[in-house]
TrEMBL record:
A molecular function (GO) term: oxidoreductase activity, acting on the aldehyde or oxo group of donors
Cited SUPFAM superfamilies: Pyruvate-ferredoxin oxidoreductase, PFOR, domain III
Xref: Gene3D superfamilies: Pyruvate-ferredoxin oxidoreductase, PFOR, domain III
Keyword Zinc-finger: no
Superkingdom, natural source: Bacteria
One protein family per Pfam: POR
Name of this protein: Indolepyruvate oxidoreductase subunit beta
Residue ranges of every copy of the Pyruvate/ketoisovalerate oxidoreductase catalytic domain listed in the record: 15-194
Keywords assigned: Oxidoreductase
Organism, as annotated: Candidatus Desulfovibrio intestinipullorum
Entry keyword annotation includes Oxidoreductase: yes
Length: 198
């Protein structure tokens, strides 16, 4: 694998999901693998349910800036937020997203419509060369912690061959950087993500 392969990754999710923690974990994994990393928060909402966006640039970028149409990969922790983040994806980029919906307050109040998954997938397919949807929250809960669903998504992208490091390096990073009490659920979640590309 080319350790200095240049990649721009855009993360999006909702507050309370742990998407900023996921960004930090993937950044630490990249550093652990000897890859140059620049990370930045585009937009973070402390309150639960607000949109959270961050970027991870691998392979020697100078600034954590990302404009529309520049991301090589979108990692979406919620399907509607993945769709909303689509303008950041370059034509032919790749999308990894949770398929488990967490409708925003506007939908709960009847002010907004939540598109169905077929519509979300069709609109993403207009831009992305490939897209992968995994039931992350469901698999996280099966692994022992709903929050471990983020690890399912990260493991899947690591197993895909797109990144300059693989899922084995991610597994080592989990063991090194996650508190011991969080490791069993996250290591099980990692196996679910790994098996997606098996």
């Amino acid at each position: 694998m080319d350790a200095q392969k240049k990649l721009r990754i855009y993360f999006t999710g909702v507050g309370g999901q742990g998407s900023l923690t996921a960004t930090a974990l993937l950044a630490r994994t990249a550093l652990f693998a000897g890859v140059d990393v620049v990370a930045g928060e585009v937009h973070g909402m402390a309150q639960r349910g607000g949109v959270v966006e961050s970027v991870l640039l691998l392979g020697g970028w100078r600034s954590p800036k990302l404009e529309y149409g520049e991301a090589d990969v979108i990692l979406g922790f919620e399907p509607l937020e993945t769709l909303r983040g689509l303008p950041y994806l370059r034509k032919g980029g790749v999308v990894f997203s949770s398929s488990d919906a967490m409708p925003p307050v506007g939908v709960a109040l009847g002010l907004e419509r939540y598109p169905d998954m077929d519509e979300i997938k069709a609109r993403i397919a207009e831009v992305a060369s490939e897209s992968h949807f995994l039931p992350c929250r469901e698999l996280g809960a099966k692994a022992g912690a709903v929050q471990a669903g983020n690890t399912v998504l990260l493991a899947a992208v690591c197993a895909s061959g797109i990144l300059p490091f693989g899922v084995d390096v991610f597994e080592e990073a989990l063991k090194r950087f996650l508190p011991a009490k969080l490791q069993p659920a996250n290591l099980q979640a990692l196996e679910y993500g790994r098996s997606y590309f098996a």
